[in-house]
Amino acid sequence: xxxxxFEWMAMSESSIALREAFNVYPWLLTSHxxxxxxxxxxxxxxxxxLAGIGNxxxxxxxxxxxxxxxxxxxxxxxxxxxxxxxxxDPMRFYPNFYFWLKMLMMATAGVNAIVFHxxxxxxxxxxxxxxxxxxxxxxxxxxxxxxxxEARVAGLLSLALWAGIIVTGRMIAYSALVxxxxxxxxxx
Amino acid sequence: xxLLPFFQWMGTIPLSAYFLSHTWAAPIAQVIHLVAxxxxxxxxxxxxxxxxxxxxxxxxxxxxxxxxxxxLIGAFLVxxxxxxxxxxSTALKQYYSPFFWWKMEALVLAVIFTFTIxxxxxxxxxxxxxxxxxKIVGIVSLGLWTSVTVGARxxxxxx
Lengths: 188, 159
Prior knowledge:
The complex is a heterodimer. By secondary structure, chain A is mainly α.
């Protein structure tokens, strides 16, 4: 089922054109690496703050709010170049262990960010609006390294996932250095 | 001065032999290198963006810079450590790649700039910098390090 979708994509005229265009691949991959390093870099700087291990002189809410538009911009550029790399040669990625692991980690990182936003962060913001600032509230952790446990977990999880996404992204090139059971699936 | 003999020698040291005979050594060094690239770029761009009046503008420049400094330097050391075996074990390929020399020239300029002029400006009192110098320093820094990244990626792709 999934395989036929990938095959159909690979046979489309635009995919073939992209695949066969001279020097498009190296420049797409180079831009992808550049945009991804900017995006991941901005995410990492924010997560270090969230986990309470770095960038502590800026309150978390400020870091989050002010880096957010740049994270979205670089994520967009990274996704477009990554999407085109995929679209130009889907059948190269279909049997690739690290490609699927990377997709899984990206989905998990997305869910982690959304869950954090909708639970811990929302609650904390409401407390600020209600001016319920006490020693354990949002304001104190925002301005210090005393980050609540849930926020620390979300930050550390995000750091681990983004490191994993970079690792698996690079490992796509090593399509044979994978567990034997994966090769036994015979996806090629 | 011809550096070819030096590059030939690098290919023969035990470190290179180890990397060439152990399948996982090169990919492990490469993935650690790339994670360090992301940390380095993150620590670099938060400050460069601040110099350009973007991003973390609500805090003093020197605070942002001091926070980013250990991550910038730490990541740079990891880049040197992981980059060394990657270079020595493929020394002749690097020697004959125009992009390797592009990367190294950009790298030398970027390192000198980052640890002299940029360092002085980002730790200075903002009020005395005026509106123009921070922007110039931010643009030059982003340009130099982008050039390093682009050159580096093209070594493996276009020879």
